[in-house]
Amino acid sequence: MNSYDTYGGDPAAMMAAMGPFFAVIAIIGLAMFAFYIFLWWKIFSKAGFSGALSLINLAVLIPLIGWIAPLILLIWFAFARWPALNTNTQPTHPPV
48-74 pLDDT, tens per residue? Predict the structure, then answer.
């Protein structure tokens, strides 16, 4: 009836040949995600917050609801007072 020769051979061999391709794609994806976290770490640090806030972006790995935490983080970051912009010109000690 249907011969695998029509479609290029054995499906198991075809999947085995595609395994390294998917591994390379996964490694590139992980490297891009790590770079994304690094960029947010730098942004939070320069704004005066703890760089560890960027790790909240790891919530995107949670299925179905993972997009909510980074969205809330981005909205909070946009409207929060940034400690780096805090221009406190008052002296911290009384003049002598």
Answer: 999 999 999 899 888 888 899 999 999
Going by C-beta distance under 8 Å and a sequence separation of 6 or more, which residues neighbour residue 69? 56, 57, 59, 60, 62
**How is residue 41 written in tokens?**
């770490």
**CA R_g for the chain:** 24
Q: Which pTM does this prediction carry?
A: 0.70
**What percent of the residues of the chain are helix, what percent strand, and what percent coil, each to the nearest 5?**
70, 0, 30
Residue 96 scores a pLDDT above 80 = no
Number of H helices, E strands in the chain: 2, 0
